[in-house]
Amino acid sequence: MKVLYLCAMEEIGVQIAGQIRYPVGIQSFAAIREGGYLYVDKTSYVHRLISTGKYYFLSRPRRFGKSLLLSTIESYYLGRRELFKGLALDSLTDDWEPHPVLHLDLNADKFDTVESLEIFLSLWLVEWEHQFGVEVPECASLSFRFGQVIRAAAQTTGRRTVILIDEYDKPLLNAIGNEELADNFRSTLKAFYGNLKSMDSYIEFAMLTGVARFSKVSIFSDLNNLRDITFQNDYAGICGITSEELERDFKVGIHTLAQVNGLSDGQTMSQLKEWYDGYHFAYNNVDVYNPFSLMNVFAANQFDNYWFQSGTPTFLVRVLEKHPMQLRRISGFRIGKQALASAGVMTGDPVVLLYQSGYLSISHYDSEYEEIELDYPNREVEESFLKFLVPYYTTLPEQESEFANSDTKTRSLSDQRIIRLAD
What we know:
The chain is of the alpha/beta class. The chain is 42% helix and 13% strand. The strands form four sheets. The chain has a six-stranded parallel sheet with strand order 1-5-6-7-4-8, with helices on both faces. Strands 11-13-12 form a three-stranded antiparallel sheet. The protein has a two-stranded antiparallel ribbon with strand order 2-3. Strand 2 and strand 3 (20-22) form a beta hairpin.
């Protein structure tokens, strides 16, 4: 069965270290499995999703495996069982009947004008309308057309439609600081995404991912059927790599990395933890490593700031410039559990933004007072923040900043390269 799949296609390059092929920059589950790349089995999470619910939302920082997760779900619903041979899902279900899949990745455009979003959505609606034989009036709205595609896909195939939307919030994040543009984007997306509720009888499964949590974003004010798994313990490891997975699946890579850098395997594990571990996506739950950084360090056999070098979102800098705060307030910042869970990136709160963007993570949870302490997750993020974002962020005079003295932490940073702002 054909799938209409829209994604920001990155150049797929093979990175080989020893005999292991690390999928650096590859977000396609099929490409990883067919190309013989290392794959950390997350398919038990996929089974849990498809067997216990229908509508989901997940927030994670950029380059943390959201796109690969949706690609894995897509492959399952296309009935491509051969890709799952030897993985958990192959033995967990016998239902491999294909469904029509509409997979939309909004990371594929910059969305800097009202027309850019409308054209982007319309182009893919035209493709879907052609595939499923949908005829609509020229004056039909984008939301109406999307609803007709969902209905037609289910009716023409005899199987309900699967909808996967990656980086659903990209237009809104790009419009931060431009209220008029943001209002237009909100209006368009609210109606468009509203089909996830109004077309329920034609939908088998739907999942949206992004950076911003939906609860405070007005485009979801009428869409109350999404289950937010962002903070749920059962899904804390759905994206990223846990310590258990690292020790299980990267033994060869760890040993090779140790030899190249003149370290023992134990010292290498300690270095990996210091550089790339420390993310927590649930209260009092497992540590998670940055998957993008791990794949890069094993491919290159060199410790470095890979995640930050891949590009810092411009929206982050815009918010930090507009809402400065004291630097000392960042590390060890305490926030109420409900406040963090309900806050959205569109509130303009820089601390919430830094958390949702991956520059801060949960370091401690006080169950008595239901308060969360946030801090830098690891060395990679802290060094990157100090070298690039502090100039946009701090309101402290230079002599008062805890990082301003050249004899303190700033001087001790091992990586002194200049990192440019990238989209």
